[in-house]
Amino acid sequence: MRQLIKASVYLTVTLILIVAMEGSHAIENDSEPLNSSDVLQASLRVANFMENYQRLPENISAGNRTLDCASYTYALSRVLSGSKTVEYRTVNSPALNIRRISLKLSSTRYNEITVRFRDFTDKYSRCPSTLSYSGGKIDFYNTVYLLSKIGRYRYQKGRMPTDVYIRTPVPLNAYRINSQTVDSRIRSINSEIRKTSSLIKRIRIRIRTTGNIRTRTMLQNKLRSLENRYNYLRGQLRYYEGLKNSPWYVPPSLRRYLSSTAYCSVTDPNVVYLARELSGNTSYATALNLFTWVRDSVDYSFYYRTRYGASGTLRLREGNCVDQTHLMVALARTSGIPARYVRGYCRFISGNWYSHVWAQVWIRGHGWVTADATHSLNRLGHVSNWNTTVSRVNEVLTEYRL
C-alpha cells in the first residue's frame, strides 16, 4: 500500500513538472521574435485575400504564429522599415472608418506612411484609425492593404517597389442581384431572339428555293450556327426570367426605396462593408441580421430630429429613433432590400405619447415588415415598446429630412 502511495505521488509530481515545462515553453514561444520572411509571406496572403474577398482577414498565419490584423500590420510595418526580426507584440485594433481612395504613392510617400504607422503604434500600443501624412490621410483598412501590397511585392521580387497604386478593395454595394440589370438583360435577349428567329426563317426559305448545291451547303451551315445561337439565347432567357422569382429581385415599383439620400448613403464604404459581413442566404435572413445588429449594437440617445445620419450613427454607435432608422434603411438598401421610413405618433409602454420614426423593409413573400431597432424588446416584424393598436401612422416616406 505504501509503495502504491509513493508511486502515485511520484506520478503526480512528474505530471506537474511536465505541465510546468510546457507552460515555460509556451512562454518562451510567445517571446520569440517574428521572422521577417514569415511576415512578408503573410503579406502575400493578406493582399490576395483583400483583393478576392474585399474585407480584412480575421486571423493571419506568420510562421508558427497566428496574429490578429492589428498585430500583423504592426509587425509588417517594422519589417518594411528595415527590421530583420520583430518582437511579437499585441496591439489594439481601431474602429473601422474606411475611406474610398484611388491613388498612386511614390516610395517616399509610402515609406512615410509605414514609419508613421510604426511609430504611432509603438507609442500608443494601438493602431491609428486614420493616419495623416504629407499627401493627405489614410485609414487603417487601406493602410493594411497598402502595406500588404508592398510586402507582397518585396516577397515576390526581393526588393521594394518604385511606387504603389492603391484602390480601396470595397465594392460599391452589397447587392446579390441588380434588378435593373436583370430587366435590361431580358429585354436585350428578347431582342436578340427576335432577330435570330427572323434570320432562321429567311435562311430556311432560301435553302428551299436555291438550286445551287454549294450555296445550299453554305446556308445549311449558317442555319445550324443560328439554331445553336437561338437555343443558347433561350437558355439565357430562362436563367434571367428565373432570377425575377428570386427573393432578391426587386420589382420596378419598389426601386425608389433602394436609392441613396442625404442622410442615408448606400455607398458609404463602412455601411457597405458591414452589410456584406451581415449578409445571409436569403433577403429575410439578411434583413434579420441587419435589424439585430442595429438593435443590439447602437445605443439609444434622446434628441430631436437628425443629428448624425446613417454614416455618423454607424461610426458613433449611438442615435435617436431617426438616426437609428437612417442606419437601418441604409444597411437594407445597400444590401438590395427596399426600405422606407414611417413616422407616427405612438403611445409607449411608459404610457407617454411621442412622435416616433421607424423603418419598414420589403421582403418577397412577407411584404412590408416593421423594423424598429430602437428597443431591445423589439423583433423584426414585431414591436413591444409601443402600442401598435392605438398609435397612428402619420406618413410613409422614401426619404426623411426633418
UniProtKB/TrEMBL annotation:
SMART domains: TGc. Residues 313-375 form the Transglutaminase-like domain. Pfam families: Transglut_core. PANTHER family: BLR5614 PROTEIN-RELATED. This is Transglutaminase superfamily protein. It comes from Methanothermobacter defluvii.
